[in-house]
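[job 4417] fold queue: 2 targets
>>> target A
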Amino acid sequence: MKVTKKTKNAQKVTPKKHLGQHFLIDTNIAEDIVNSLTNHKNYTHLLEIGAGTGVLTNFLLEKENFFVIEIDKESVTYLKKKYPQLPLVENDFLETTPDIWFQQESFNEKFAVISNFPYHISSQIFFKLLPYKNQVLEIVGMLQKEVAVRLAAKPKTKDYGILSVFLQAYYDIEYLFTVEPDAFDPPPKVRSGVIRLKRNDVEKLDCNEIKLAQIVKQGFNQRRKTLRNALKGLQMNEKVLQSHYLDKRAEELSVNDYVILTNLWEE
């Protein structure tokens, strides 16, 4: 059941304001986000992306092999002063790799990710993590509500999209709860949503994943059209042309449907 988190009787922290950011100040909600991590025994490291003023960090300090990556210089200065022993990497997450995140050459351990995701680049962060799907066993975090709903959306809904397909191929995704604007300082104009992604048992999709990605992207780029029209630019064999999937729109196909359609293309 989706629960809306309110700030009544909650403890609050006063953030250092800069760059027009909206900081989570409700420590009860921060603790709820941290407690949403469930898969502890199956991974060895934990990474927080964009710690900001440390509202999540404060509840993560006791965890083993906990690392933080933060690009904002003011936040880095603040965090270093408040948590001098914290393994903190000052770098751009989108431009680096796990060996940088965890300060370890050729890093190949299993790990989890937690974050109050920067809303303007949250989708980019998930695309960045996807190639490391066999290492990233769990992701917990807060996003703009519309994006969180989209990641967890099921086929045949308006929110189901490209990232829904790519992530749901390898993760079970659960929308946990909604966070209202008054949990932030200053309050944003949007509501937020907290989600959890847990790695499923799919090691590799049973199809050409590059071709599947091409079909998914082109299909959703013209999502109002049937796939027969949306995919016209791709060369189709007779089996594809006869497939009933082409008479559906991109949002109507499950991950498994896309795998089947991709294999028809490859025959």
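>>> target B
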Amino acid sequence: MSIELALLIWSAALASAYIVVQSTAYRLDYGVQFAGSQRDNERPPNKWAARGNRALRNFLETYAIFIALAVATELSGRSDNLTQWGAQIWFWSRWVYLPAYFVDVPFARSATWMVSLIGLVLLFVGVAF
């Protein structure tokens, strides 16, 4: 199994972590009762629930790209150092990004996002050229 395919499989755990963090922050803010309702008349979320929502949304914006590139790498048989490094950089930086969204270190979150983008670019270049 290629590294890209292995990381694609493990990315399901990564996606689950984002969902668990977001849903936990939501339930802590709104309460289990409201979370289980139709959520009519929802007030704006507190800082932590809002960060959980934004972190999850941001993850989902790049997740589909990673899936497409990892599958294309596997199907084309073009796994090499470039695609392997790209997949690993994206995967591990997305793990770092989740807590980075919740701490107030200037530019830490943005820098981590840029690193993950570099991983996607490496994957793209490796499989496309």
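[job 4417] complete. Note on B: The helical segments are 3-30, 32-35, 47-76, 81-100, 108-128.
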